[in-house]
Design a protein that fits this description.
single chain, Mannose-Binding Protein A, Chain A, 8 strands
């Protein structure tokens, strides 16, 4: 009688394998940066840590991410490739269910004020927990997301 042990990656990879300092939600690990910087600096930092800027899939994830900070923070959404076409860092387009997350009258690409420049990167607005588009070189904290370390 031969015993087979099947390998189940889903069973061996537990949520608690988020390293210290990272928060867990629905099988992903999240980290609020200690430093501030541009959207690009935030993205580079997240990638160095084995993740990327947070990709928000739905309402519940948005609510969770908003609990991580009381400040404005970069998320992984931008229209850098094509003005007005919002895409996440993993290449997925912004789904229509989440369009309600924009603050009133946003995104506005800086409105009519030329001092704002092109506003191609997105942050969660402090207190309001809504989204706003901003110049990518503005400085603020960011939120990283990654898979658990298995």
């Amino acid at each position: 009688s031969h015993v087979h042990t099947a390998y189940h990656p889903a069973l061996s990879c537990r949520e608690f394998l988020c390293i210290s300092g990272w928060s867990v939600f629905r099988g992903s690990c999240y980290l609020l940066s200690e430093t501030s910087g541009s959207w690009y600096e935030g993205r580079a930092d997240c990638r160095k840590r084995g993740g990327d800027l947070v990709v928000i899939d739905d309402d519940d994830e948005q609510k969770f991410v908003a609990t991580l900070t009381g400040w404005s923070t970069w998320i992984g959404l931008s229209d850098r490739e094509t003005e007005g076409t919002w895409k996440w860092v993993d290449g997925t387009p912004l789904n229509s269910e989440l369009k309600k997350m924009w603050e009133d009258y946003q995104p506005d690409n800086g409105g009519r004020d030329t001092r704002n420049g092109e506003e191609d990167c997105v942050h969660i607005w402090k207190n309001l927990k809504k989204w706003n588009d901003l110049r990518c070189d503005a400085s603020m904290q960011w939120i990283c997301e990654k898979s658990p370390d298995c």
